[in-house]
Amino acid sequence: AFCIWDEARRRLFLARDRLGKKPLYYSCAKDFFIFASEIKAILCDKRIRREINLEAIGHYLSLQYIPEPQTILKGVASLLPAHTLTVSDGRARPNRYWDISFIPKLTLSKKEVVRELRDRILEAVKSRLISDVPLGAFLSGGIDSSLIVGLMAGLDNRPVKTFSIGFGEERYSELRYAKKVADHFKTDHHEFVVEPKAAEILSEMVYFLDQPLADPAALPTYYLAKLTREHVTVALNGDGGDETFAGYQRYLADRMANLYRVIPSFLRNGLLGLIDLFPVSVDTPEERDILGALRRLHQAALMPKEASLLRWGSYFSREMKEAIYSDWLKKELAQADTCQILIDSFKQAKARSFLDKTLYVDEHNYLSGDLLPKVDRMSMACGLEARSPFLDYQLMEFVAKIPSDLKIRGLSLKYILKRMAADLLPREILSRPKQGFGVPVGAWFRGELKEMAGDHLFSSSFQNRGYFKKEAIERLLEEHQKGRANHGKRIWALLILELWHKRFIDQHEG
């Protein structure tokens, strides 16, 4: 993001990068205009009121982030990615300067696509290795980061410095896969295991994030960045691979939900009743929870098909939110429709297939709202620069034109990327199912973090904000701690929201 002041014309010109890797906030009033790369910098101006944008809270509980251009504060906006803002004569005029198009499709053969794709990814990696400071890479053991490391290894005779993060809970840890890739490419490998006590730094983490972000992966990302910064100053990562090449399991699940919708409701309800006879799995990662997925399928089939992210990734459904809202907040947010944000984005896509339109929504919402802020804020908090070859805009423009059936073929996600990487990565890495950066918050809130959650969510400050019904929150925690439901991510979202208020609102009152 940058700004140019045109002294002669008394005109301010601001611009933000195409995908929203870097932040740019502003506040525009009749007699002043303030901009900064951090909300906390804008709040240094006493004219800015710390007034909560209630609608943002509703969106946050659904999406786990606050959708741009909104922020958590009234009167403070986020400049959208790929936009400029011209300020003159007391007016601010936004303008989009770039967008991605999925049409027309390439007419190349599959072999030609693979060859061209490899050249373009290699060039994206090569250009991000230009640095006068020590450089390394994040390595999760998934296809994306493993491919980046493999290409880096082929461009330098020295061992690549790689960095991985894991958990004591084996079901959530990918360290063994990362180690296999590190051994395969003979990297200089470093590992770190995150324990529940790491949550002691949550208040600091919230400060660096600037506004509520309920993605638990922000915590291990912070520790990964901290570990990495002890050895290098720049780190490449695999961010953007899932959104660009179609790597999320929900892209397959969307197809199932769209078919499930046509089944008569009495049969769907009967199936749900049968599923409900089985106990809830409270400590199984979502990717492996078959019964949880079937429950989610029933809910997803009732939602608009354009809103894939809400269908499968929402922490709180509309019904759950209304159950915990206080009466006045429910009234205030009666017209707030998170689903419509995604539907509008879906309709704007320059694409024909359902998959491409969904990828467009994710690139313009989930990527810029959650994934990129998480990595940018946590890495910059540690003085580490994160670079993302898959987010090279020219590479993304090329991949968008690849036919949809080369992104998902049958049940194979990222089909064309796997074909491209077949001679580079170990077979086990190519064939392993998608795991994601899951964090065992469910287990933590029944164990080491149980007291922490109660201290904050039963505190007088939390209750006095008046957002939620006390008995509803008590029921949420009780159901979780007794193993009747897995509310781990919901508790995490509420906890982060409360910690944000304490850091940015309570400390400045009076």
Describe this protein's structure.
The chain is built from 25 helices and twelve strands. The protein is of the alpha/beta class and about 500 residues long. The strands form three sheets. A five-stranded parallel beta sheet has the order 10-9-8-11-12, sandwiched between helices. A four-stranded antiparallel beta sheet has the order 1-2-6-7, with no helix packed on it. It has a three-stranded antiparallel beta sheet with strand order 4-3-5. Helix 4 links the parallel strand 8 and strand 9 (about 160-165). Helix 16 (about 355-365) packs parallel to helix 17 (about 365-380). The model has no long low-confidence stretch (mean pLDDT about 90).
Task: Order the strands across the largest sheet as they lie in space.
Answer: 10-9-8-11-12
Alpha carbon gap, first and last residue: 34 Å
The residue fraction in helices comes out at 40-55%
In one word, what is the shape? globular
What's the helix count? 25
* Low-confidence blocks of residues: none
Look at the structure and give the mean pLDDT: 90
Share of residues in strands:
5-15%
Rg, rounded, reads: 23 Å
- What kind of sheet is the major sheet? 5 strands, parallel
Short description:
By secondary structure, the protein is α/β, with parallel strands linked by helices.
